[in-house]
Write a structure and sequence with these properties.
362 residues, Rossmann fold, 2 domains, four-stranded parallel sheet, binds iron/sulfur cluster
């Protein structure tokens, strides 16, 4: 059995460590690229959401490299994510690929089924080993999120431009070669040490922008056209409203233990959206309110074209912007998004935020 899974930003690194510790052969799809998108666009329904199209590209590229089993997370929420597994299997079958598709529903829905599916892939490894590897996988996700936060803070302040990019490039080559959680932890740790040594201008005034919206688009740099890097180069410190370790905490730990780790977000969204309508619409609204209270200069909402929950959120955000007094720009992404127009919009937004901040200070 050779297992593969979608890239989803750096999520694949945590999954790779988890499976390799349990002795499972994994095939990592190449970094998302134009070819990945072309394959997905060609074989997916035209109106399918962008993440599904990129997933299909990832799978095909992995199958061509020997993968025969696909692992994805599932959900029974009210958006299209709930039927991704079935739809993706059908698309691959129409293309002539007969692969196993194993869908992991959140463990809070049925912990027994969750563990037994993992044991099936891992040739019935003992439960304590599975639990240990799961925890290490979660720790990797947490470390990766910390590392990204460091890069977001350093990039707009670096004295020698391009240092973070250079270090990150080296890290990517190393992480590709790492096998199992122990080696992965070491590569991340080494990279963090290098980042700490980057010379920065700590007094430089930078703008702070929160990235809100649909989770896949927020965490997958190829899909959001490397927005964090672009904004960092424009002198902006970004903050991701969502990341994988928090997703694991919410969907695995807190639900299993019966508490709500998103209480603050729900409370902040209360005046605008009371019901969970699928995807991360409620989190998008709640985070927008919280960012404004934390004094952020502006927000950018990312949404894949035709994403139902985020379309609803985008219709609410103008009220949030007015009431909470924070500028918000929405960027819709699909396979036709052009990079030059995208950069122009980012530059205009950043200029506006800069002028607004100076005027306020004066
Ligand atoms: S949140 Fe949006 S993009 Fe993601 S699966 Fe649901 S509809 Fe598609």
């Amino acid at each position: 059995m050779k297992v593969t899974f979608p890239h989803m930003g750096e999520t694949y690194i945590a999954l790779k460590g988890f499976f390799e510790d349990l002795g499972v052969d994994v095939v990592i799809p190449p970094e998302c690229n134009k070819k990945t998108l072309q394959i997905g666009v060609k074989y997916s329904p035209e109106t399918a959401c962008l993440p599904l199209k990129v997933n299909i590209g990832n799978y095909v590229q992995s199958i061509e490299n020997g993968a025969d089993t696909i692992v994805i997370t599932g959900s029974c929420g009210p958006c299209r994510f709930g039927y991704y597994g079935i739809l993706e299997k059908e698309i691959l079958r129409d293309m002539g690929y007969d692969v196993d598709m194993i869908v992991f529903d959140p463990p809070s829905e049925d912990i027994g089924r969750f563990i037994s599916r993992i044991r099936k892939i891992t040739n019935n490894k003992p439960v304590y080993k599975v639990a240990d590897s799961l925890y290490k996988g979660y720790r990797i996700a947490k470390e990766l999120d910390d590392m990204n936060k460091m890069m977001f803070a350093i990039r707009p302040r670096e004295i020698k431009k391009g240092e973070v990019r250079r270090i990150y490039g080296e890290y990517q080559k190393e992480i590709e070669k790492a096998h199992g959680t122990r080696e992965i932890f070491k590569v991340i740790d080494d990279n963090k040490k290098k980042l700490k040594d980057v010379r920065i201008d700590a007094d430089r005034k930078v703008l702070k922008v929160g990235i809100i919206g649909e989770i896949y688009t927020v965490i997958e740099p190829f899909v959001n056209l490397y927005i964090e890097e672009k904004l960092g180069d424009m002198g902006v410190e970004v903050d991701r409203s969502m990341n994988v370790s928090e997703w694991i905490e919410t969907n695995m730990f807190s639900k299993l233990l019966g508490f709500n780790s998103e209480r603050d977000i729900d409370k902040a969204a209360e005046n605008y959206l009371k019901t969970a309508i699928g995807g991360h619409a409620k989190q998008c609204i709640g985070n927008a309110v919280l960012y404004s209270r934390k004094g952020f200069d502006g927000l950018i909402q990312l949404l894949p074209f035709s994403c139902m929950p985020e379309i609803v959120a985008s219709s609410i955000l103008p009220s949030v912007s007015r009431n909470e007094k924070i500028p918000i720009m929405t960027l819709v992404l699909d396979e036709l998004t052009g990079e030059s127009g995208y950069i122009t919009r980012l530059e205009a937004f950043v200029d506006m935020l800069g002028i607004r901040k100076e005027t306020k200070v004066e």
